[in-house]
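Backbones bend. To wit:
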Amino acid sequence: MAEEKLPLSEFYRVLDHVTISKSSKWWSAVVLTEAYGRKSVALYLWTNRDGRWTRKHKFVISGKGDWLAIKTAVEAMLQKMEGTTPAKQ
C-alpha cells in the first residue's frame, strides 16, 4: 500500500520526507521542501480532524548550524531526563 500524500500546500515542492509516526489522529514527519528556489527542512505535526489532516505545528531547521544547536540542547535535556551525565570529550 502506497503512503498517503503529505498534507502540504501545493506552494511547496516536496523533495523527500520521512514519516516519524502516524496514527489515526496524529502524523509527524521530517520534510525536505523547496519554494522560490530555496530548500528547507521542517518537522511537521498534523492532526486528523473529521477525516482531514490539518497542520498543528511546523518547526523549520534553517541550516546545519541551527540543527547542531537544536541537537545539543535536546541531547542535554534527554540526559537530564534519564539522569545521566554527558561524556567528557
Remarks:
- The first helix runs from residue 64 to 82.
- DSSP finds one helix and four strands in the chain.
